[in-house]
Amino acid sequence: MSAPDRLWINVTLFDGLNTAAEPMVVAVKNGLIERVCPMSELSASEREAGEVFDAECRLLTPGLVDCHTHLVFGGSRAGEFEARLEGQSYEAIARAGGGILSTVRATRVASEDELFASALPRLEALMSEGVTTVEIKSGYGLTVEDELKMLRVARRLGCERPVRVVTTLLGAHALPPEYKDDADGYIELVCHRMIPAAAAEGLADAVDVFCEGIGFSVAQCQRVYAAAKAHGLAIKGHTEQLSNLGGSAAAAHAGALSVDHIEYLDEAGVKALAEAGTVATLLPGAFYMLRETKVPPIELLRRYGVPMALATDANPGTSPIFSLRLMLNMACTLFRLTPLEALSGVTAHGARALGLHQQTGRIAPGLRADLCLWNTSNPAELAYSVGLPTLARRVFAGNSH
Ligand code: NIG
Ligand code: FE
Fold first, then answer.
1. Closest ligand 1 atom number to CA of residue 313
2. Going by CA atoms, what residue is nearest to atom 1 of ligand 1?
3. Residue 268, H or E segment
4. Per residue in 39-58, pLDDT tens?
5. Whole-angstrom Cα distance, residue 131 to residue 263?
6. ipTM score of the complex?
């Protein structure tokens, strides 16, 4: 076997699911992880080969995966934040034409270049904390052209920075004013125009919906899922965020990669996720910003063995928070995840929520060498402290940045 390009030695390893009990070696070649073994198995000749980097027992984790964001948008909703502090609810603001629709107005008038320029610092903030894979949704255009515009910006972000961008068409996010009182007509547009156009241009990897009283009904979401699947696209859902409509179970039955938010998910819904192998994505930033009090059913998800992913939900309304590290802390303090559960949520399970678990999110032979080296040897530190630049090195596909 020829020499690896880089040998990481004396690594404290969190592989995405578990922490190794002894110092480890990770060999990287051609952008892939070639071998993972204890230091005790490394021969003297192997140690001489390739470029050796001594981690001095610092923690090496998979590159972080933020599996749910709305990073591309126009405008700001600081005014809505103030209104909510004065007592108005998220739902009342949405029903009055604000909320998502106010971002839709700002996004429609923005050019691709403007959207790109405003999204870039948001992406760079995530990357500076170790994110190597990020999902970006559309959903603030709500016309065929404006949704495709958002997806093009998302793709361009992935081309211009060393990060993997997964794109999701969220046409069924809110009812645009042109379709007021005709939700079924709008779903028709999503299914027969938006999804085919996004698929034909290769702009979407997945399709998402907002299944909620202020979003779309379970039956309407099921139509969107069928259209997405007919075009070979994966499916996901914003479900059980504000109420329990049974949207998570419907998504799971349709083969969804993940259901996201799920504060109001019940045991039957958890069971449906377990049976379908659907990931439960927790979004504590939105829970926090909306001052929600209903905690997702963490104990049930554990009991049924449902993988829990964790993401920022970075968006201008419910989670204007561009820090996945902060989500690690919030998942522990607000939802009582253990630090290791939280860390699996932004690595192995985050990758699974995107259908990328064969490519990234774990440190295992054959996967892409997306890695983070931290200035600590204790994984719990990553969830414990907030605001310290603990990242020593971020590696994307074998290259340090
Ligand atoms: O994930 N729930 C729906 N969608 C977003 C919020 C979007 C917005 O308010 O702009 C979410 O919370
Ligand atoms: Fe969201």
1. 1
2. 313
3. helix 267-276
4. 999 988 888 777 999 999 99
5. 25
6. 0.96
